[in-house]
Design a protein that fits this description.
The complex is a heterodimer of chains A (604) and B (379). By secondary structure, chain A is α/β, with parallel strands linked by helices. Chain A contains 21 helices and 24 strands. Chain A has 4 domains: 199 residues, 3-Layer(aba) Sandwich (Pyruvate-ferredoxin Oxidoreductase, domain 3); 183 residues, Rossmann fold; 73 residues, no CATH class; 120 residues, Rossmann fold. In chain A, 39% of the residues lie in helices and 19% in strands. The longest helix of chain A has 21 residues. Chain A is globular, with a radius of gyration of 27 Å. By secondary structure, chain B is α/β, with parallel strands linked by helices. The N and C termini of chain B lie far apart (69 Å). Classes of the chains: A alpha/beta (604), B alpha/beta (379).
């Protein structure tokens, strides 16, 4: 029997609220600590306890961290889904099952390991509730022994997570040992899957995007944070609160250099951001689709009155309540043009946890530079799942507070007009309430206003203002993060280009390798911000066929690209994935190959 | 003091000159000045565009007068409003203060954000009955619940003026529109709502009684939490007819003041003599005093249950009870609850808000070793 080393997926099926998260993280970290690239995807229901939940750990010696369609190893801990989960497993796969759970009849080429978990728990604790929580550690021990995950690394991962709770630690250790011992004594290995030490994760961290964004916001110097709880965004603000409490209180006095306000709804949350931004604070809120819908009116207000603010949208599946615990990229068009009237916003599109950290900082600088709300579009997959990353670099730049006139600056000016385009970049100067110099006083209003911020319904003044705002968006085009290009150095060698954004990146990287192996070399551009910089259309024009890969039904980024490069519209095709699961490489590869086959067929 | 010339042209003055003016108490050759050396005209705003005779204009002039008499520093005031006739008025007073005319019903969230960013600002919010009691009722309640320090003035006329006379949620049962249609729905009493939510300063007044409104406003300027002033302000165009319970005639007829109010600011050394048992005295946290002189009966404004009962009885008896309904100057403070730094958050320098590299390094280590807390899912 040949071996499959460091290249498979483990799919753990449990019940929500059963405490499996610690077990899954210990497994994930133990493999990571052995130097093997890993990723963890939590597939959870909109429920606190009782509904099925799954956790997938992918080990990939090649470093692929996107979801992999299909699994090699299944752990059955949930009787409700056992039959369906087992039915998905193909020939040669492994099923580790709690003996108490009935499995359907399976073909002989599935390797089934049954473990009497209840019996093993008997000697560990008599507490029934604890048994239910700790039983998950038995499959950790079983898999470690079966796959060759080093016991010392499991121990280390357990210690890191539970070191502060000695009683829980010893119980969990006992369960892991029981699982390992049972395998050694009763389950001879009958499968090819193995974990073997590598050196591909040294120095790396494992972190989720929401935590990364929270760190970015803290190091950006955020001072006012408002929010309304919503999955999958809540953990961003909850992480941020934890960091702020720890690192942003004066050690001597306990005084906070920040305010966190849990609002009554998302309308109030964004209103508070605009109030704080107007008064000069670095203010942010974080939400998901339904919250964005509620923020629409205030977003337009912020655009028209030119107030900075940062809004994170951790996208989930819509429309409406949709699938609240599943991932999507379907808010792009809505957020970009949020609110009535002619509005448009800078939208940053982080594709990694490192970019969640970096773009959070970028967003505050841009919002204050451009004097408008800036959106950061993440998603549930990026925000809530654990990703490997190089550690985040300390910010190199100070900060950009934009064009703010203080009393000293005002004293040198003959007059001040809030909405005058003095510099020709569409960005006016602003003053903050509290300035002593009366020259700086102005009235902020969402109704029509002229250069001096006076109320007006004058048609020419309205047009001048709207045209200036458009100029400001042109400036934004040059300031949002530039696209990242892969493999375009030899443009003539590839007629085919891929374009993607956000969390799709990782599946696209893997798909490029698969496509190259299938004889379809590609160049790839990852868009990192709206409005689209000119380099995007230039890239599109250099290729015969452009496949825009995104996690929505309607091809929202593809539409934007077609609008910006109408002459190439017919050559821009969509490869779409919108079932709520994180994007996998196979879907991308098959989508592109299907189009390519049609393209070649038509050519013949 | 020889600063009359530059004082009369506020816009041209330097910040330093204005700082000097803070201690000025002399009188301008032709115009009196307040303790900052500012004339009343320097508290004016632009010309009103509301209907002639609108009650809101009287309130605007009361705000100007009160701000001038109280010696508010214009640059430390932020004027906020929502949408509607009432919400236009911040443009008409304190032209040297920053103003913010928000979206409909959402001024409270703006105020909360402004306060969090710069708690050194005195916030004067002007709203209407539509803006507060309908579209903005939720935000109003939560503002009061948080006790964000805002002088929250509701210019209450029972109708939507700017959209031409539809009933608002404060219209009394049986009150009629111009065309004769009567309102059947229970009114929302914003003072009662505010008291229920723990508001520490709740007053009701009438735009036609500036003698009462001015001292109430000045006392509210010194209140450290949300101060709600529900000011009945007749709409001369859509609700001043017979059948409207908020017409000038109806309000004058039913107005039942609880007390005569006198206000003595902390910076004036004035002793008020009164007969024992005739007057109650309330000292505001800034040291100013409010004297409530007994009228028909001795009203105790520190008892919330009594205040609510008074509002309820007045409604049953078709009376408009005005005055300081409830006051509790010791309410918890929003900024203290958040334990905010002394300086405004908006002006903290980078080194105060960006932790050092060692902090990031320590955090990165915890995510490398797996000792950081594990994120959690949920629905």
């Amino acid at each position: 029997m040949g071996s499959v080393v460091n290249d498979f997926s483990i799919h753990v099926a449990t019940v929500n609220g059963s405490g499996s998260q610690t077990a899954n993280n210990v497994l994930l970290r133990a493999i990571f600590q052995m130097g093997i690239p890993v990723s963890g995807k939590n597939l959870f229901p909109s429920n606190i306890a009782g509904l099925p939940t799954w956790f997938t750990i992918r080990a990939s010696r090649d470093g692929w961290v996107a979801r992999r369609g299909g699994h090699e190893i299944l752990v059955v801990m949930n009787p409700e889904t056992a039959a369906a989960d087992a039915a998905e497993m193909g020939p040669g796969t492994v099923i580790v099952a709690n003996e108490a759970i009935a499995l359907p009849a399976l073909p002989d080429d599935r390797v089934v390991y049954k473990v009497p978990m209840a019996k093993l728990m008997e000697s560990i604790t008599t507490d029934v509730k604890l048994r239910r929580l700790v039983v998950n550690m038995i499959y950790v021990g079983v898999l470690a022994e079966l796959l060759g995950i080093e016991a010392a690394e499991v121990e280390r991962a357990l210690l890191a997570q539970l070191g502060k709770k000695p009683k829980a630690l010893s119980l969990n250790q006992a369960a892991v040992t029981a699982g390992m011992t049972y395998v050694r004594e009763h389950l001879p290995k009958r499968d090819p899957y193995r974990i073997e030490r590598m050196d591909a994760t040294a120095g790396k961290i494992l972190i989720d995007g929401n935590t990364a964004a929270a760190l970015g916001a803290m190091f950006a110097g955020v001072t006012v944070v408002t929010w309304y709880p919503i999955t999958p965004s809540s953990s961003l603000v909850e992480s941020l609160i934890g960091f702020l409490e720890r690192y942003r209180r004066d050690p001597a006095t306990g005084k906070a250099s920040y305010a966190v306000i849990q609002a009554e709804d998302e309308i109030a949350a964004v209103g508070m951001v605009l109030g704080a931004g107007w008064a000069g604070a670095r203010a942010m809120t974080s939400t998901s689709g339904p919250g964005i819908s509620l923020m629409a009116e205030f977003a337009g207000y912020g655009y028209y009155t030119e107030i900075p603010g940062v809004i994170f949208d951790i996208q989930r599946v819509g429309p409406s309540t949709g699938l609240p615990t599943r991932t999507a990229q379907a808010d792009l068009s809505f957020v970009y043009g949020l609110s009535h009237g002619d509005t448009q916003f800078p939208v940053l599109l982080p594709g990694s946890v490192r970019e969640c950290f970096a773009f959070a900082q970028e967003a505050f600088d841009l919002a204050e530079r451009l004097q408008m709300p800036v959106f950061v579009l993440s998603d549930l997959d990026l925000g809530m799942n654990n990703w490997m990353s190089e550690p985040f670099p300390y910010p190199e730049k100070p900060w950009d507070r934009g064009k703010v006139l203080d009393d000293d600056a005002l004293a040198k000016l003959p007059k001040f007009e809030r909405y005058r385009d003095v510099d020709g970049d569409g960005i006016p100067y602003r003053t903050l309430p509290g300035s002593r110099d009366w020259k700086g006083t102005y009235f902020t209003r969402g109704s029509g206003h002229d250069e001096a911020a006076r109320y007006t319904e004058d048609p020419a003044a309205y047009v001048r203002n709207m045209d200036r705002l458009k100029r400001k968006l042109q400036t934004a085009r040059t300031l949002v993060p530039a696209p990242e290009v892969h493999g375009a150095s030899n443009a003539s060698a590839s007629d085919v280009a891929l374009v993607a954004f956000g969390s799709s990146h990782w599946a696209v990287l893997e798909a490029r390798a698969e496509l190259a192996a299938a004889g379809v070399p590609t160049s790839y551009m990852r868009v990192r911000g709206l409005p689209l910089p000119p380099s995007v259309t230039e890239f599109v024009r250099r290729h015969e066929r452009v496949y825009v890969i995104e996690q929505n039904r309607d091809g929202q980024l593809a539409d934007r690209i077609r609008l910006e490069a109408p002459d190439r519209a017919a050559r821009v095709h969509s490869v779409l994935h919108y079932d709520g699961l994180p994007l996998d490489a196979r879907s991308v590869t098959q989508g592109v190959l299907a189009h390519e086959g049609a393209a070649h067929g038509a050519a013949r | 003091m020889g600063r009359h010339d530059d004082r009369s042209r506020g816009k041209g003055r330097t910040a330093a000159a204005r700082r000097d003016a803070v201690s000025a108490t002399t009188t301008h050759a032709s115009q009196p000045v307040n303790r900052l050396g500012l004339t009343r005209a320097e508290y004016d705003g632009s010309k009103t565009t509301l209907c002639p005779g609108c009650g809101h204009n009287a309130i605007t002039s009361a705000i100007i007068q009160a701000a001038w008499e109280a010696g508010l520093e214009p640059h430390r005031v932020a004027k906020l409003s929502g949408i509607g006739c009432s919400s236009k008025t911040p443009a008409y007073f304190l032209g040297h203060s920053h103003g913010f005319n928000a979206v409909h019903g959402r001024m409270p969230s703006i105020a909360t954000g402004v306060h969090a960013a710069n708690r050194g600002l005195l916030l004067i919010g002007v709203s209407g009955d539509g803006d507060t009691a309908s579209i903005g009722l939720g935000q109003f309640c939560h503002l009061v619940r948080r006790n964000v320090p805002v002088v929250y003035i509701v210019e209450n006329n029972g109708v939507y003026g700017l959209t031409k006379g539809q009933f608002s949620a404060t219209a009394d049962v049986g009150s009629t529109q111009k065309g004769g249609r009567a309102n059947a729905l229970m009114p929302i009493d914003l003072c009662a709502v505010a008291i229920e939510l723990g508001c520490g300063f709740v007053a009701r007044s009438f735009s036609g009684d500036l003698k009462q409104l001015r001292p109430l406003l000045k006392a509210a300027f010194g209140h450290p939490g949300t101060a709600v002033l529900d000011v009945i302000s007749p709409c001369v165009t859509f609700a001043d007819h017979e059948g409207s319970t908020k017409s000038y005639a109806a309000v004058k007829e039913h107005d039942a003041p609880l007390h005569d109010i006198e206000y003595v600011p902390y910076f004036e050394d004035i002793t008020v003599d009164y007969e024992p048992g005739t007057t109650r005295e309330v000292t505001m946290p800034d040291g100013s005093r409010v004297y409530l002189k007994k009228l028909a009966e001795d009203y105790d404004p520190t008892n919330p249950g009594r205040a609510l009962a008074t509002i309820r009885e007045a409604r049953d008896e078709l009376k408009l009870v005005t005055g300081l309904l409830f006051v509790d100057t010791q309410t918890r403070r929003f900024d203290q609850e958040m334990n905010l730094a002394e300086e405004p958050l908006a002006s903290l320098p980078l080194e105060r808000v960006r932790p050092p590299q060692s902090v990031l390094d320590a955090i990165m280590t915890s995510y490398r070793e797996g000792s950081a807390p594990v994120g959690s899912g949920g629905g």
